[in-house]
Specification:
Radius of gyration of chain A: 15 Å
Order of helices and strands of chain A: EEEEEEEEE
Structural class of chain A: mainly beta
Strand content of chain A: over 45%
Oligomer: heterodimer
Strand content of chain B: over 45%
Helix content of chain A: under 10%
Strand order of the largest sheet of chain B: 1-2-3-4-5-6-7-8-9-10
Number of helices of chain B: 2
CATH topology of chain A: Lipocalin
Structural class of chain B: mainly beta
Low-confidence stretches of chain A: none
Chain lengths: ~140, ~375
């Protein structure tokens, strides 16, 4: 969605590849994302780190445009769904942000991002990604 | 969070450019002023709370543990205006079975986004918790935050409900599932005190500080009261320019927690520039360090804290901030002062502290007729 939390429902589409590798013997993973679409290319990385004490994962995103690591999002997997949350600033206002992974099979998964401007009562989804595994040759 | 391209422009510029006051308006990308104009203006939303209140608190001893043990406290809350009402300061002193408690909350309003931030500290920690942010809707203030409890990241919710002109209810809840379910863990009810003599016996009797604490926690005592202020400010820091501007104004400094914290309110103008900002200084008795927390009334956003201490009468405070997109070191200095005059200076370093460029000089002189506090 091009303009989240504005009432606009204008979406753009991208296609690309993501490569995920395990780091620190599975206590973390690194996702590299490369997308192309009408609004231009998007490059990003996601470093996911597991805290065995709290049993929560943190998702740490960085974008190729600025190379700055975002605020970590914290959460966990339950019943096959992963949900991760943080509080961020968007257009100046402080909002809640949710990242979700679901419909997870060995060869596919779905990712959604949503924003809430009312403390989590209502969420507006603004980013949907579907992943399909590319079989190694 | 994905899609950070323009989010980062905003975050870096508005949130992380936290230099006390120098950089306000310099290279700051702001949202257009009309962007949030459809939202109601909440600047007066806390006016009803100004005054003195009797406070009763019920607190869940161990939140999110399944335990149902509640502790009770009784105390006094005093809410005072800051910047003539654009912000306010809450001081809460109470006692109960779990001991003595002294806390403060600095509430700041962001007129651009029309959100309030609640910034809480208690006397034991001497540092600010992350801001809880939100707004009033249909008579209830709803404020939200993400914090860490026992190592886990959780959501925090704080509700403020005006029951009548003379009573208010406060509720804090935690959520460990992204806001789907909430557990209530703090209920406070405030009843307005009309006769101030009622509160005198319950005012804090802070314990006497040890000699070591006294070194640090009285460090700002020289500053209490009202001062005339002259500001010299470098127009364009770290550019090689040596063009300075001057502003004139006033500083008023109030004592909190018997000197373990204080709030300085500053207003100054010169040419076409009008500045209004505050500095909340908090003493951490464990580390013997102070934090300086700055905010301007233009956006009501608290800066990254600067950490430091006084040695031999000279105070030095440091942090790292973003300036024009680059990470730099920032230093704030209080040279030795007298009871009738003082000064402070800000400097930037873009070489890791090897060289410093002074870009802001405050000179204070005691206002005539101001009693020494």
């Amino acid at each position: 969605m091009l303009h989240p939390l504005t009432g606009s429902t204008e979406w753009v589409e991208y296609d690309g590849t993501s490569v995920v590798r395990s780091v620190m013997n599975g206590k973390g993973s690194l996702l590299e994302l490369q997308l192309n679409g009408p609004a231009g290319p998007i490059e990003g990385v996601g470093l996911r780190l597991y805290d065995p004490r709290s049993r929560q994962w943190s998702l740490n995103w960085a974008n190729g445009n600025d190379g700055v690591m975002s605020t970590p999002m914290f959460g966990e997997f339950k019943n096959g769904r992963g949900e991760f949350f943080d509080q961020e600033t968007y257009n100046g206002r402080t909002i809640y942000v949710k990242n979700g992974f679901w419909d997870i099979t060995s060869d596919s998964a779905r990712f959604e991002q949503a924003f809430s401007d009312d403390g989590g009562k209502n969420w507006e989804t603004n980013w949907i990604m579907t992943f399909k595994r590319v079989k190694e040759k | 969070m994905l899609n950070r391209i323009h989010i980062y422009l905003l975050a870096v510029s508005v949130i992380l450019v936290t230099l006390p006051f120098v950089t306000r308006g310099q290279g700051v990308v702001r949202t257009s002023p009309n962007e949030h104009a459809k939202l109601r203006d909440g600047q007066n939303d806390f006016d009803f709370e100004i005054g003195t209140w009797k406070t009763h608190v019920k607190r869940l001893q161990n939140p999110l543990s399944g335990s149902k043990t509640w502790l009770e406290y009784n105390g006094i809350t005093v809410v005072k205006k800051v910047w003539s009402g654009k912000a306010n300061l809450v001081e809460l002193v109470m006692d109960g079975p779990a001991g003595h408690f002294e806390g403060l909350s600095l509430r700041l309003y962001n007129p651009e986004t029309r959100q309030w931030s609640l910034n809480f500290s208690n006397i034991k920690s001497g540092k600010l918790s992350p801001s809880t942010i939100g707004e009033f809707k249909n008579g209830r203030g709803e404020f939200y935050n993400q914090e860490t409890l026992n190592g886990r990241a959780i959501f925090v919710r704080f509700f403020i409900t005006k029951i009548t002109d003379d009573s208010i209810r406060f509720e804090q809840s935690f959520s460990d599932d992204g806001g789907k379910t909430w557990e209530l863990n703090w209920i406070a009810t405030d009843s307005r005190v009309k006769d101030s003599s009622e509160t005198q016996s319950t005012q804090t009797e802070s314990s006497q500080p040890s000699a070591k604490e006294r070194d640090g926690q009285n460090a700002f005592d020289w500053e209490f009261g009202n001062w005339n202020l002259k500001i010299k400010r470098l127009k364009n820091p770290l550019t090689g320019s040596t063009a300075w501007t001057e502003l004139n104004g006033k500083v008023s400094q109030r004592k909190i927690w018997n000197g373990k914290a204080n709030l300085a309110e500053v207003s100054a103008s010169g040419g076409s520039t009008n500045l209004e900002f505050l500095a909340l200084r908090l003493y951490n008795p464990q580390t013997n360090q102070w934090t300086l927390n700055f905010a301007s009334s233009g956006d009501g956003i608290l800066s990254v804290p600067m950490f430091g201490e006084f040695k031999n009468g000279v105070g030095e405070f440091y942090d790292q901030e973003m300036f024009n997109g680059k990470a730099i070191l920032v230093r704030f200095t209080f040279p030795a002062s007298t009871s009738s005059s003082g000064s402070s200076e800000q400097a930037f370093s873009n070489d890791g502290g090897k060289t410093w460029e002074t870009n802001w000089i405050n000179s204070y002189t005691k206002e005539e007729g101001t009693p020494k506090m």
